[in-house]
Structure formats: structure tokens, C-alpha cells
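pinned: reference chain
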Amino acid sequence: MKKFLALLILNLLLINTSQADDIREFQIEGISIYDPLTKFISKNQIIKKKNSYKDKGYMYKSRDFYSITFFKGEAFDLAKFDEIQFHLKDNDNLYIIHAVTGAKHISDKNKCLKEMKKTERELDNLFKGIQKRSKKNYEHASKLGSIYKRTVYYFSDGNVAMRCDTWNRSTGIKDSLVFDIYSKQMLEFLKRAY
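pinned: its C-alpha cells
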């Protein structure tokens, strides 16, 4: 049975209590990396969402991966997050998920940091022995916003991360408490993408 990383603000965290050691065991809204996205929505929904973006979801210089985001009330019945994002490999007809992100919109910096601190304590208890790094108050690689705090847990096959984001109003992106699960392949791509 998969362990859940259904990261929850004020009980957003729902994880089996045994030690976690495989990145595929974690879930956001019941979805893990390496799952085919077609297990949850149709191929047509994926293509329609991708085609709804001017850039077809290619948010990086390289077109090896693209990103699609669904908001509460769209294709997913989101219980804990306001939006969910997927990174998929270009030309992959299986639509394997290489990164899944859940965002809970929180505009108040102090509230976001308080919720993150609570969740971080729970993850520290779960991820005993897993390397962890935190960084505070720095600019996004995009130069369109800032991160108040980001904490990353390093597994051999990927990362679990959380952060409190704030964005320039011009982007239309809402400030949020964000949780990410990245495959190792996605992390290697991101190193080259910026």
C-alpha cells in the first residue's frame, strides 16, 4: 500500500507512519510520480489543457518537458489543494508524471510560514535520516516572485519539497503554500533548464 503525502495545511499531511524510502510512495491528492496521468483523466483532457496555453505548457527553454495545471473545480476533485500541476515528458504517449505539485492559496506570509513549520515538523519525524536543506528569502529563478522559505528532502530517486511563494501581481499567480514531488529525471532536467 502506498504511503500518502497528501500534504495538508492544518492536517494536510496524511502519511502512513512507517519510515518512507521510495519517492513513488508519496502522493498529492492521491497521485504519485511515475503514475500515468491517464489513470486519473482522459488523454483528451490532457491534450485540451496543453493546447489551452499559448506556449503549449513549455515553460522552460528546453522542450523536453511541459507543464499543465488544473484548478479546483476543473478536471480533478481537489480536496486539499486549490490547484495541482503536472510535469510530463514531451512526446510521451503514456503521459507518465515526472513531477506533481499541489498549491494551497495563502496570501498571508505569516500564516503560510506557520502552516509550513507545522508540516515540516511532521515530515522531519517521517523522514528520519533523510537529508534536508532549507533556504529563506530568495528570488524565483523566473525573477517574477520570491520564496519566503523552501525546504527540500533528498531521496535517491527524487525530492519532496515545500515552500511559501509570493508572486508579482502582473503574473496572475496566487501566493501559496506549495508542495512538490520530483522524479530524479525531472530534477536533472531542471538543473539544465535554468
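why pinned: The chain has three helices and seven strands. The first helix runs from residue 43 to 51.
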